[in-house]
Amino acid sequence: MADISTKYLGLNLKSPIIVGSSGLTSSVDNIIEYEKQGAGAVVLKSLFEEQIMLEVSHALGQDLSANQYPEAMDYISNYSRSGSIDKYISLIRESKKAVEMPVIASINCYSPAEWTNFARKIQDAGADALELNIFVLPADALATADQLEKQYFNILDKVLRQVSIPVVLKISSYFSGLANSAQKFAWAGAKGLVLFNRFFSPDIDIEDLEVKATHVFSSPDEIFMPLRWIALISGKVNCDIAGTTGVHDAQGMIKLMLAGAKAVEVVSTIYKNGSSQIAVMNADLEHWMSEHDYSSTGDFVGKLSYKNASNPVAYERVQFMKHFAGIE
Question: Tens digit of pLDDT for each residue in 210-235?
Fold first, then answer.
């Protein structure tokens, strides 16, 4: 029988499948179910930097809303009442008592503000690792790429000063020098990178003339961006890589692992197919490994990365010249 276990962030996972941060992972009962179905780890639903800062401002008797949009602060205030920081700490502790698989905490952040001190509470509660979902929107015409990139390193540095558990960065592809940045994140102390985070996507209703959300769930076609970059940088950066976005079945999981991912994070496929999809993906992975005579995941992870592929230039090609020219 093929061994589908993997090692990620120094943690032993019985499966490469990690249930990603979402509403699915805000319940201990759900987390117990994911372990029963064979998940290797779980990333708890994210706390937002704004939530933590709101509590900090209340503790200090400050009015944080003075420097924020009133509508946003009203929402954050109401959300925090139903999903307070204390509840998050309890979720970590209760999850650790209920399951054996690693429990990874998550914070959605964009600045190295005082919220970083909260990371220590996450560690003290028993989290096995901390995932920082960072995105600094490059929409400020006066901000240079170096200035924006520096915020990532400032956040990582301040968090690492608070904890000794592994810290992983979940980032986007919006870097002018992504491979170089990935390497520098590893040098700065990140134990892992998750490629890539997925954002709210706005759309415009041309009849109602309103801005609305679209594509809440990912599609399998979205896997190709993380696949390319995982293949390009795996084996070149001194940290583990997990793939996410577009992983809906074992086929997608295997592709990202062949590219060099140690694990994959899944969310949309569980929303669409239920928690049993985890068991289905594990069974299909095991079957594929047996068919190809792989006894462990270490036998094939990174086998088709840029470093190991027989035709690595395919990962670097960015134009469809051959396709559109009709060349066979």
Answer: 998 776 788 999 999 999 999 999 98
Q: Give the β-pairing of 11-13 and 192-195.
A: unpaired
In angstroms, the CA 163 to CA 34 distance is 27
Tokens at 6, concatenated: 């993997």
CA 214, 176, 157, 18 torsion: positive or negative?
A: positive
Domain ranges of the chain: 6-324
Q: What is the pLDDT of residue 73?
A: 47
Spatial distance between the Cα atoms of 146 and 176, rounded to a whole number of angstroms: 9
Provide CB contacts within 8 A for 261, sequence distance 6+.
16, 230, 234, 241, 242, 243, 301
Distance CA(203)–CA(102), nearest Å, equals 37
- pLDDT for the residue 325: 54
Highest CATH level, class, for 6-324 = alpha beta
Single out the residue of 179, 199, 129 nearest to residue 159, CA to CA.
Answer: 129
Rounded-to-integer distance, Cα 240 and Cα 259, Å: 12
What whole-number distance in Å separates Cα of residue 179 and Cα of residue 102?
28
The pTM of this model reads 0.89
Give the Å distances, CA to CA, from 201 to 107, 185, 311: 20, 27, 34
Torsion of Cα atoms, 43 then 249 then 254 then 36, to 10°: 50
pLDDT tens for 163-175 read 999 999 999 998 8
| H or E segment and range at residue 229 | helix 224-233
pLDDT in the model for residue 322: 56
Q: Per residue in 89-134, pLDDT tens?
A: 999 999 999 999 999 999 999 999 989 999 999 999 999 999 999 9
Give residue for tokens 């961006």.
225
Nearest to 137 by CA among 186, 172, 182: 172
Q: Identify the three-state secondary structure at position 205.
A: strand
